[in-house]
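Quick illustration, no need to memorize.
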Amino acid sequence: DDGSVTTVLSFEKLLEEADVEEVRLVKMGENSFVWAVGLAGDPALDSTHQSVGFIKLDLDKVRAKTETGGGGDSGDAVTDGDDTNISPVVVGACSSGFTSPDGVAYERKVPITKLLTFHWRLSDNKLEGALQYSGSAWLAFGVSMDGKLIGADAIVGLPSDSSVKKYELVDNDEGSILDPSPTSLFSGTISSESGETVLAFEAAVGSGDTHIIDKSGLNTFLYAEGASAEFGFPQHRGTFRVDLDTCDDDVQAAARSHMGAFAAHGVIATLAWGIASPFAVTVAWFRTLVPSSWIYIHVFSNVISFFFTLIAVIVAISAMSVQTQASHFSDPHHWVGLLLLVAVTFQVMNGFLRPPVEKRNDPYAASHYDVDSGFLKFPKSPREVWYWSHRFTGVTMIGMGIFQIQSGLDMFAWNYNVESIAPWFWGYVGLFAFCLISLKFWIMFEEYKARRGMEAMHVDHRSNAGSSQGMSHADSELVPVQFDMS
């Protein structure tokens, strides 16, 4: 808006609450508060915020300064919660192989997203860089001293009008905004042709604090890629830190191998829980179609699922262990995977421990014809207990496997900034379920036709028997039995 409207969110909260489920506020000492500002004019709760952060506030110090008139420096009462640079550190590859439309042959590169790559080369006092994007979209590149948006200098290239604009990210009452900046830090051009967009730029470099870009040391860069050539909200944005003077092809290969390892983990796990285990359950469900061989197929599929699950877990743990910041069992996906390994191990072992069918010495005993009075039939023999436990565990594992594949696909897409194929997986699940239901209805229909055929044959048999005695079909239903008593 034009600044004539002010939005105020006021609240109250008790200090030192005894309720253990509440996040407590301490009267003396630092409290951490988070805040977020939505897009102007958009009241939707699920809309994208334009800025977010947190602060640490000592309420007692604020009260003391208020009572004394607010004099003095308040910096010790309120501190910026984002006091560390958490931007990921990346290492560039020693060869770029890319030349800009202006003829600049770059020497190093860092893949940022699936479609975006940062290329650069250094001279004595100049950085020549480029963002290469596969597609047509507006691009932005900036540099920050501390990893924060506020105070960063950036350029935005718009393919729609081939313009490059300079901005500084400033903070006001409405949050972080782009402010036109006259800074001479960047100069650049943008081009979009043959399905590729390139934002090429130059910037001064130095050493120490003399320049904002350090020639030999970590620099924090910001990037953004739009959804189209027209300027709007970015579809991807973020920060990263890189030493422009350092490169290592081995590190780049290791990063790619980590991605490949997790991709292999996903493929193997999908073979186990997207194919082998569902196939085992399907064969058991439709065992009347293959009455003599279903048990062998069922056991083989479960054993294959066990080995695939074991290999997938080993690959995931190994790939996680060699990462710089390993985070074992920090996500529900990790724990569900471990539970699946334990469950499938139990299921396979329990399958080989199946009790034999109970032998009945007296088939005419009353217990043989007992009828359960309730809706639920409770197991009465070890074989029935085993059957229900085996069945329940199998169905539960299928549900866990579906969750595991879906969460793994989303996690892989998030970690490596690629498009998730989870919607395709859900399409596969839906198609598989549709085929099972259709097959079940077909079998029920065939059984119904078979029963009708048997009933017709039985009626015809009785009709023919009655006719041979000179009786009609109607009379054959009630034929007196003659006994010769002589």
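The chain has a mean pLDDT of 76.
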